[in-house]
Design a protein that fits this description.
Strand content: 35-45%
Shape: globular
Helix content: 10-25%
Order of helices and strands: EEEEHEEEEH
CATH architecture of the domain at 39-136: 3-Layer(aba) Sandwich
Number of helices: 2
Structural class: alpha+beta
Largest sheet: 6 strands, antiparallel
CATH class of the domain at 39-136: Alpha Beta
Number of strands: 8
CATH superfamily of the domain at 39-136: Mog1/PsbP, alpha/beta/alpha sandwich
Length: about 140
């Protein structure tokens, strides 16, 4: 499989799984942690159901992130397919962070994960200023 981006090209074994991660950040503003938007790709385990995948991710976040608190977890219908949204906070040395993560079922067992992250204090503003518009124009390819 050949992969080409704006910055590089590489040949990889055909059986390898694409787990690409894209990260975009708002411009830094006076030392504050800027809001960011992340799109990543993954695959469900063989025989795994979508809700099982989401629950596995939730458990991984709970175990990995200090002070992790789940605020909301719900199924959605968005982007023309099954989706699941979680909203959570966690502690970092710099600030309390907040993230909306949307898991999107794509092409059978594929998962697109969309993460909208900002400090908890700036999240509502970042959501109104950036995240809602970004999510509104997100489209799945293929």
């Amino acid at each position: 499989m050949q992969v080409q981006t704006k910055s590089f090209q590489i040949d990889l074994p055909d059986a390898w799984i694409d787990r690409t991660v894209y990260v975009w950040s708002a411009p830094p503003a006076g030392g504050a942690i800027p809001p960011n938007f992340v799109v990543s790709q993954d695959r469900m385990a063989q025989g795994e159901e979508f809700v099982g995948y989401v629950n596995r991710q939730v458990e991984s976040l709970r175990q990995t992130l200090e002070g992790w608190t789940l605020l909301e977890q719900r199924p959605l219908r968005a982007f023309g397919t099954e989706t699941y949204e979680i909203l959570f906070t966690w502690k970092t040395p710099q600030a309390l962070m907040k993230q909306r993560q949307i898991f999107v079922l794509h092409q059978g067992d594929g998962i697109m994960s969309l993460g909208c992250t900002a400090t908890a204090g700036a999240f509502q503003t970042a959501d109104a200023q950036y995240f809602q518009a970004i999510l509104a124009n997100f489209r799945l390819a293929g």
